[in-house]
């Protein structure tokens, strides 16, 4: 068993400088690490596309059964070679699909426990429900969740949770692997590897329900943990993180002694995929010099939505330093290919065309055709899929061609306008907030709407589009809509700050802002560091006949935003600042089927969290008679009433000019 007070004490001693690492000599050692991250309950494959010798191929990537097949292949290969191997998850297994909406953490626990994971990082979306359900999830899985920088001692639900650990230590004898329970008595003549976890230290401002957990500084905790482990004679050290690739690189440059960082959170498919018609997302297995100027840390991450798996081979010398770190991510494709996104029977590749694509894939190391694991697919289809299929509800639109969502313009082959999905949703929320029955509740005509890219979880696929595609997949967080009166100067500051925060390479782009009936330009002036906001304009009129007028700093605008961003979360801090003393905001939820307004008095900061104070009762989203997902309902109503042929807007809301000379 792991004694948390003793662990905390040993890390505290390391922080105070009392731990002096001994000069330990080991045998040179080679380790293979298979890794995934940000799988977000994508148990089924994701519809996607790639290019094969210049031809666009519409296919499917991933899904848990394909991940399972490839993980088993890696494990079998390691066993055959008597090679040491770990299988790690970089966090955010929760949220992201209809399965999660219906089954919460239970299905994740069931399916993940069948995949043979050795450990998982604690992601921010693991806090999307409440700590009671998170505790149940962690208790029911057969691998540990790791986070060295969290203190759960004051949290009623998680304080006694022994499977949420700061680290896990493994002893290897070739392919044979055992868990070390007592690091004060390490096994002799075996290679020892420690894996410790790091969670975001600003978690309370990103995740909605962190309870009474304290999140400590990532860099200080990482160095203290490494020092403590080294003081026990453990030199082969992996950080399993959910903090984003840019932050991983920063931590590596500030902490001595981490050999490998296996990351998550920024959804970064590291590697150059341009010859597949995809993007170059940065170096896989990038080596970063530590502050001592001697040792280096290798950094990896494997994309998103269970579409790919990473594999890295790390070689350690007798001192535990990395001498080689090589590998790559592999996209896992099905073997059925189409010429168009709607994937109709007439568009299916001919046998000759299919053979040509298969040959291309066979010669490419970063994509492979992978069969689904039969047992895992059967379990998903028999136990969980029927209820999900039933929950999708009515058809509300036809989608002639796939509409893509890209968080940050320019990423993954998108143009400088970015997402076509986000402006549509924002337009829908503007439309809904200005319906007479909504205006009657708020007492306000909305001027424009804003939406953060991270709240949008899927593309809009071609074909029939149902209510459940919106409420279960696209906008799954059950946020309620807010109408917020705010000065133009606050909006200007919000746009500038949130876009600037997404400029660094590998940064988490969930906070990137899009809008409806508002547009802006942002031009990067210093690559990955700074830029200038310009041409912020508010639209009056209609999509067919728009009229654009400059945003006025001193004018008060009524803005439709979901409550998460309206409160200032995820770096939308200017909205919190604007509502600290007083707010005219109205939040909207359905009580007994009737749309009801909840007037906000102000927002205050309590500890690390923003707390909304209401003039009367707060919306109780847990109550049986209360429906809070008005953000999704707004878009559903808009599509059904005004956009049954669902196509992108005819105007762009964002023009984001990056410096191309990097």
From TrEMBL:
GO function terms (MF aspect): 5'-nucleotidase activity; nucleotide binding; UDP-sugar diphosphatase activity
Domain Calcineurin-like phosphoesterase intervals: 32-268
UniProt EC number: 3.1.3.5
PROSITE patterns assigned: PROKAR_LIPOPROTEIN
Segment forming the signal sequence: 1-19
Biological process, per Gene Ontology: nucleotide catabolic process
Superkingdom, natural source: Bacteria
Domain 5'-Nucleotidase C-terminal: 413-573
GO cellular component, one term: outer membrane-bounded periplasmic space
UniProt keyword list: Hydrolase, Nucleotide-binding, Signal
Keyword match Nucleotide-binding: yes
Top-level EC class: hydrolase
Annotated Pfam families: 5_nucleotid_C, Metallophos
Alphabetized PANTHER family for the sequence: 5'-NUCLEOTIDASE, 5'-NUCLEOTIDASE-RELATED
Stated family: Belongs to the 5'-nucleotidase family.
Protein name: NAD 5'-nucleotidase
Organism whose genome encodes this protein: Photobacterium aquimaris
